[in-house]
Amino acid sequence: MKNNRIAVMASGKGSNLQVILDEINRGVCPAQVELVICNKADAGAITIAKNAGVPHVKFLNPKDYDNREMFDEACADMIGEASCDWIVLAGYMRILSVAFIQRFPNKIINIHPSILPAFVGGDAVGDALKHGVKVAGCTVHLVSEDLDSGPILAQATVPVLDNDDWDSLHQRIQLEEHKLYPSTIKRLILNGFKLKDRVAIWN
Ligand code: GRF
Question: Which fold has domain 110-203?
Fold first, then answer.
């Protein structure tokens, strides 16, 4: 199959990577994870990728690079060598350099734990709780040069309950993330989209 090779970039526990791999194994998601890149040596995503037999699993230490651009260039070169069609950010906690984003136009996707454009940034769940919203959720979007602001591909909502704390709300959001991310990747591969200004329209 064409258009289905993906690189996943992750920094954390890797539950989104896990469900993507699970849905691929079940034959539901037609992607092929060729490469996983982590910027944290102890990221759960590394173990998950190795256990699943991902062909290339790389830890790159940002301290080994003079600056963000050089680190990102090393990642981009690996992605290029692995001939990946899509770059999937799954809890990747680094801001990407402009050069990296421009090298893969409209090919990088991210999942963010809010209904964008509400609550961009590093603590969307905490910010939603502080603001007192009654509905929260998650968004899959294209990565553009402005943080968490690229065209929206898919969203799912969850209720916010009066007794929620960060963990309970994040857990409820993640249940939706785990359905939304693999299903959106499937649509990217099988259908694709057009952009009309910043509006993504599924084929
Ligand atoms: C998710 O909540 C995602 O929305 C955010 O980072 C978290 C990653 O979780 N971008 P995991 O590492 O996939 O479990």
Answer: Rossmann fold (3.40.50)
Which of 140, 177, 184 to probe ligand 1 with, by most ligand atoms within 8 A of CB? 177
DSSP conformation class of 97: P
Please give all residues whose beta carbon lies within 6 A of any atom in ligand 1, as ranges.
10, 12-16, 90-91, 111-113, 138, 174, 177
Q: Which CATH architecture does the domain made up of 1-104 adopt?
A: 3-Layer(aba) Sandwich (3.40)
Instruction: Provide the pLDDT for residue 1.
Output: 79
Confidence at residue 25, expressed as pLDDT on a 0 to 100 scale: 97
HSE toward the beta carbon, residue 127, CA cutoff 13 A: 14
Q: What are phi and psi of 158, to 5 degrees?
A: -140, 155
Q: Rounded mean pLDDT of the chain?
A: 97
Domains of the chain by residue range? 1-104, 110-203
pLDDT at 106: 97
112 carries an active-site annotation: yes
